[in-house]
Amino acid sequence: MLLRIFLLLAFLQPAWAADNYPRNESVDIRRYIFRLELNDTTNRIAGKATIRFYTIKPVREITFDLIEETQGKGMRVDEVRMNNRQLIFSHHAGRLKILFPSEIPADQETEVTISYAGVPADGLIISKNRYGDRTFFGDNWPDRARHWLPCIDHPYDKSPVEFIIIAPLHYQAVANGVRVEESFLSSRQKLTHWREEVELPTKVMVIGVARFAVALIGRVQHIPVEAWVYPQNRTEGFLDYTPAVNVLNFFNRFVAPYPYQKLANVQSTTRYGGMENANTIFYFERSVTGKGQVENLIAHEIAHQWFGNSASEKDWHHVWLSEGFATYFTHVYLEHAYGPERRKEGMLRDRQKVLSHCARSPAPVINTAITNYSELLSPHVYERASWVLHMLRRQVGDSTFFQGVRRYYNRYKGSNALTEDFRKVMEEVSGQNLEGFFRQWLYETPVPRLHLTWQYANGKTTITVTQMQPGPLFNLNLEVEIKMADGTSRRQNLRISAKTQTFSYPSAGQPVQIIADPDVNLLFEEVKGR
Hints:
By secondary structure, the chain is of the alpha+beta class. α4 (about 295-305) crosses α5 (about 320-340), α5 crosses α7 (about 380-395) and α8 packs across α9. It contains 10 helices and 29 strands. It has helices at about 1-10, 235-240, 245-255, 295-305, 320-340, 340-360, 380-395, 400-410, 420-430, 435-445, and strands at about 25-35, 45-55, 60-65, 75-80, 85, 90, 95-105, 110-120, 125-130, 135-140, 160-170, 170-175, 180-185, 190-200, 205-210, 215-220, 225-230, 265-270, 275, 280-285, 310-315, 415, 450-455, 460-465, 475-485, 490-495, 500-505, 515, 525.
C-alpha cells in the first residue's frame, strides 16, 4: 500500500522534480555559432563559440557545460570576450562560469565568444570508418555535447545553431540546417558553413566530416532528401536510403508539415545504430548493404524529427515522449505502407521483447531513479512505451488518438513537454479522464500477467480471468476470440478490473479454442497452466 501511495504521489508531483540539471531560468539561449578547425595530424580541435543569450532577469554571471582538459583530453578555454573585452571565468567540474564586469539588466540580448581547444574525450567521435578513412562525427545524445561544445547541454533550452567547419580539403562536411557557404581557404583547407534557424536541443546538434558521396534521392514538396554515404559503397547506400522519401512524405502528411528545410541521411561511424540529429540523421555504417533492409530504422529516425527533436521532452526521465513515439510511429508507418498485419507482427515481437526485459530488469517506463541518462535507453522507453501509445489509441479510438497526437505536436513543436502535457491534450480531445490509464501503464513497474480458463456447460461458455502480477491490479480491456468446431467464431470484450473475474456467454455448442487478444492490442503476459 505504501508503494502504491508513493507511486501516486510521484505521478501527481511536478514531473521535472527528479531532474537535477542546474537550469538557469534567468537567461534564454538565442543562438550558438560554433567555428571548429579540424586537422589530420592530431585529434585536437580548435573552437570558437559565439553564444547569444537573452536575459529574462538581471544576471551577473552565466554558466555553460564544457568538460575541462585532464590527462590529455577535454577542452582548455583560452579566453572569453564580450564587446572586445576579456572576461573573468572559471572552469572546473565540467562547468564554465563566466563573470560579467557589471550586472546585465533584464530584457537584453548579449553575446559572448569563447575560444577553446582540446581533444574530445567523447561527443565528437574522431576515428576511422570501415574502409580505413578518417572521420569526424558528432554524437551528443543525451548530454555529451559538453565534451566539445560549450553549451546548455539539456533539452530545456533550445536554440538555433550554426556550424562553421574548417577542415582539410579532401573532406566534405554536413551539419544541421542549410549550407550557406563552401569556400576554399587555401590549397589545403576548406570552410563549410551550415545554418539552422529552428531551435534545437543540443542532443541533436551535429556535424559529420568525412569523404562522402552525396546524392539527391528525392523531394517531398520543397524538401530535398539526400543520401551522404561513403564513396566505396555509394551505389548500395543510395539504394538503401531511398525509403526515406516515402517515409518523410507519409509523416509530412499524416502528422504535420516537416519542421526543417532538408533531410540528410548520413552513413556514419558513431555509437548508436541510428541517431535522429535534426534533419541530419546518422545511421550506423553497416546499415549500407544494398539489400534495402533498414526501412524500419529510417522510419524510426524520421519520426523523431517531430517527436523528440521538435516537440522535445522537458525532463530526461520523460524520454519516452521521444523514443516511444518514434517506435510506435514506425509501426504506424508500416501499417500504412503494408497493412495491419505488418503492425501486428511488429507489436507481437515488441511484446515478447518487453516481457523478457521486464523479467530481467523490472522498472516503470518513467523511472526517476535513473541518474545516468544513458541508462534510460531500454525496452521500457522504446517498445513498452510504444505499446502504451497503441493501447491509448484503442482506449480513445483511432480518429481521436491521431487528432490528439497532432494537437500535442502542434502545441509543443519547437518547445518542450512532459507526460502530463501529453495526457492533458489527450483528455481534451477524448473527453476522458486518462489519469488512471497513464498512471498504471507509465508509472507502475509490473506488466499484467493474465491466467485464462474456460468451460462449457448448459449452453453457456464461462471464461475466468485472474490477474497474476505482483503489486497493483490493472484496469484493462481484453478481447477474446471464441472459436467453434464448425469454423465460426465470435469476439467478446472483457473489462478486467478485479483480481479474478468470470464472464458467461450463451453458446450454441462447446468451443474448441479461446484466443486471448487475437489482434495484438494489449500488453500482457498470458500465464499458461496453474
